[in-house]
Amino acid sequence: MCGPIAFMLPVSRENKVLKFVQIFLYHFGRLLSYGIIGLLFGLIGKSLDLFGIQQQLSIGVGVLMILVIIIPSKKVQKFNFSQPLYRFVGRIKSSLGAALKKRTPDTFFTIGFLNGFLPCGLVYMAVFGSIAAGEIFTGSLYMLLFGLGTIPLMTTAVYFSSLLGGNMRRKVQRLIPAFVILIGFLFIIRGMGLDIPYLSPAPTTAIVDAAAGCH
Predict the structure, then answer these.
(1) Can you tell me the distance from the alpha carbon of 55 to that of 132, in angstroms, rounded to the nearest whole number?
(2) What are the tens digits of pLDDT across the range 128-137?
(3) Span between the terminal Cα atoms of the chain, in Å
(4) Residue 132 is part of which domain span?
(5) What pLDDT score was predicted for residue 215?
(6) What is the CA radius of gyration of the chain?
(7) What CA–CA distance (Å, rounded) separates 186 from 71?
(8) I need a labelling partner for 172 at 20 to 30 A (CA). Which of 53, 130, 158, 183 fits?
(9) Model-level pTM?
(10) In sequence order, what DSSP letters do the residues of 146-204 get, joined into one string?
């Protein structure tokens, strides 16, 4: 969803400095919303981590990331629990549509802030990652870093929207689900505690037990 919004941003075509400021405000709004989302889901992760299920949480997050991609959205919409989410997204889209018609200084910040709350595969990946972080501020930092990582491509989309044809956009869209599934498998491997440095570290309890056995 972010790509089409970036393509439609009502940025100035004549004043380069004004255009830069508008794009900056757009990204600042996105980063703020991502930080708030990270705080909320980091709190959830912290609550779950207090029960000592960090590994299970990592595996569960990985499974959810994969399911979000492979389960058709139409089937998810049949369940009542998803209806409030779709109503929320519908309101954001309506507000975005109104903001895209304006050119006031606060317009671009508003568009960016609302854009941050729109669901997409990569945002799901970042949200689940903030849960798996197991800390409130770490979850927020995770989402902020995710947002920073999207700035180069999103800025390119704004500046060169006329040069990116429909085929190129579709190719990028096809890569996103595969990328999310790959990250999901990495979360699962991480939670399995296979004693692989950085990728799947051994559980802390297992390390403590092994040290005790040596003594």
Answers:
(1) 9
(2) 888 877 788 8
(3) 57
(4) 2-214
(5) 47
(6) 20
(7) 19
(8) 130
(9) 0.71
(10) HHHHHHHHHHHHHHTTTTS-HHHHHHHHHHHHHHHHHHHHHHHHHHHT--BTTTBPPPH
**Contact of 179 with 66, CB cutoff 8 Å:** no
Comparing CA positions, the residue from 38, 33, 31 lying closest to residue 136 is 38
- Burial call 44-75: b when 16+ CB within 10 Å, e when fewer: bbbebbeeeebbebbbbbbbbbbebbeeeeee
Element (H, E) at 71: none
Question: Minimal CA–CA distance to 140: which of 12, 39, 68, 22?
Answer: 39
The HSE-up count of residue 33 (CA atoms within 13 Å, CB side) is 18
Write the single-letter amino acid at 98: A
The residue count for the chain: 215
Name the residue among 212, 9, 209 with its Cα closest to residue 102: 9
Give how many domains the chain has, as a whole number. Answer: 1
Specify the pLDDT at position 32: 94
Q: Give the whole-angstrom CA distance, residue 67 versus residue 173.
A: 18
Q: What pLDDT score was predicted for residue 81?
A: 47
Query: Burial letters for 151-164: b for 16+ Cβ neighbours within 10 Å, e otherwise?
Result: eeebbebbeebeee
Q: What is the mean pLDDT of residues 168-182?
A: 74
Residue 61 contacts residue 132 (beta carbons within 8 Å):
yes
